[in-house]
Structure prediction request, 188 residues.
Amino acid sequence: MESLLIPFLILVAVAVAVALTARALGHRRRTVREPAKPPVESAELAREAAAKLSEDEHRRLYALIAQGQAMAAIKLYYEVSGQGLRASRDAVAALAAHPQPFQPPAQETSEPEDDDEPPQRFPYRYRAIASKGDVTREVSSNMLNDEIYGRIRTLAKSGNIEAAANALIRHSDITLKQAREFIALLDD
Prediction:
């Protein structure tokens, strides 16, 4: 029996050595073969990616995502954004994970005119009337016209109440409180 003990111990030692070597090589292969994981798809990345798209591009990209055409969506984003392929892949993955509504580019918060220059005065008085239910407000000024009033309405409807009120004050002789009351009636 003693004659079998030494070969048996050698066999066990070789088996342990082979097992450890195989495990080490397997671990190396797994770390080499595993693809690099994309960065965490965050809502912030999705917002940034969506901001680079026009309304038509946004619609087309989400149509491709909804149809399960990931490669076509990545290609579209790659072409319109000018970013690299990996960045486009990550952006599309973030957009798919965190859907973003289309946001038009931010409008200027005030009119492009210089604040130092007084607004132009027109030879007529312009009357702007806003009402909601029983409440009616009127602003009459010779510094308003259809174009300026249209810009004020656009600011109000886009949710930029303060900019709309400031523009209305600039082109009329009303107080900030009166301007806010008038703008509040335009939000419909």
